[in-house]
Amino acid sequence: MKNEELKKEVPKPQLNHDQLEEKLDRLWNEIEKLKVNLPTISINISDECQGCGS
Q1: How many whole angstroms separate alpha carbon 20 and alpha carbon 31?
Q2: Record's superkingdom (predicted)?
């Protein structure tokens, strides 16, 4: 089989609008969680590194 024939036979999966919205919502939720965690992560790093210069 040639590549062109394969492309014709395998349709790309189409996401409907609702599925896309759901995926976006999940992504935004993950991003918000990361934003909330970032300040605590940077504080932890700076606390650990205070003794490096001495």
Answers
A1: 16
A2: Bacteria
CA 24 distance to own-chain centroid: 10
Q: Percentage of the chain with pLDDT > 90? A: 20
The CA distance from 22 to 29, in Å, is: 11
Reported pTM: 0.41
- Mean predicted confidence (pLDDT) in 30-35: 86
Alpha-carbon torsion angle 23, 25, 31, 36, nearest 10: -150
Q: Residue 22: CA atoms inside 13 Å, Cβ hemisphere, count?
A: 5
